[in-house]
Amino acid sequence: MQGPAIFIDLTLEDQAQEIRKYLKGLGAEISEEKSPKGIEDDLHKICGVCDVCLKKDGNEVEIDAVLNSIVSIMVSISLERGENLILAFCEKLTKAPTIELSKVCLQSLWRLFNNLEQSSPLRYHVYYHLVQVAKQCDSVKEVFTGLDEIKSQFAQCPPSKEQMQKLYRLLHDVLKDTQCETASKVMIELLGTYTDDNASHARDDAMKCIVTALADPNTFLLDPLLSLKPVRFLEGELIHDLLSIFVSEKLQSYMQFYKNHKEFVTSQGLNHEQNMKKMRLLSFMQLAESNPEMTYSQLQEELQIEENEVESFIIEVLKTKLVRARIDQKERKVHLSSTMHRTFGRTQWQQLNDLLITWRDNLTLVQTNIKNISQQQAENKNQGPINITTSAGKRNY
Predict the structure, then answer these.
(1) Backbone φ, ψ for residue 322 (5° rounding)
(2) Is beta strand 323-328 parallel, antiparallel or unpaired with respect to 393-396?
(3) pLDDT tens sequence across 282-325
(4) Is-contact 58 7, C-beta < 8 A?
(5) Which residues pair with 389 in a beta bridge?
(6) Cα–Cα distance measured from residue 141 to residue 290, given in angstroms and rounded to the nearest whole number
(7) pTM for the full model?
(8) How far lies 268's CA from each of 210, 242, 279, 280, 281, in Å?
């Protein structure tokens, strides 16, 4: 944890007065005099105009010192109206006009977040604005490393369900364009916060979750989405029909859906060519589950590609590591050795269970054989030399 940053070596009241003077010198509508109501009122006045220093031509080192001095005072006193004060300060820092100044604001917010007590409910508000500022300066990875990290950050003072839903929505919006897979996980976490009683109110979140998962080029196991309560409330709607196609149907079904609902697909921000590419891969995975060997002509028909595109398609599939295969150019065939299941339900669990039982039985047999051999060797050793008579005479072994 970082210690409070100090703007100048004065008492808190005198320090606040120096900040007042500095901000007034920049044109802020604030008195230079201390507030008769005390240091907390000084802070409210300061936070109300602190953004005056966030100018494009401002000195970044100077701005950093001022903001950190405000942070230093905040974490040094007991705030009676802490939430309003924190929100006012954080809101101002989200208005930085340049990337460079956003980075300065980000550092100040980090110091504030790290210096608040772990049990303080104010940390949630600071973190929410941290994410906003991080997006502005392309530094999201510095403030968000995963869902587990967020939960541990707020373990001592968990935000309300509504607050976490708000945070998950923000994170999804921030991540969806650059980290689709992570954005999908965040949205699934969001949908998991709804219950049977309020799942029907999560329609927009559920639609965003589906669209993000479909658009993510690295997300292929989609059937878990169908079990989410908010997604189930979409049954009968086009977005649910589209998800079902990606979960279990083949390319031809998607082609027909797109032909009938082209405007809908486009309106959701989905790219038809990317959808085609993903559906070809999913269709191939499904074929691979029951066909250890496929001809080029079969793949051409099923995937609607030209013969000269088959090998490049297989190479792209192998790069995903979802399928293990070997191309036989001479025979114009593809030999499959393994594939990830496109859906993973009761049938797949049973197959996995049967496989593990077989492995266990085989290992038990090997262990028994090794034990028998060891015992036999020990018995032979205890019997002493063995006399064997050959044509060359008697020999001891």
Answers:
(1) -80, -25
(2) unpaired
(3) 999 888 888 889 999 999 999 999 999 999 999 998 888 888 88
(4) no
(5) 394
(6) 41
(7) 0.70
(8) 10, 11, 17, 20, 22
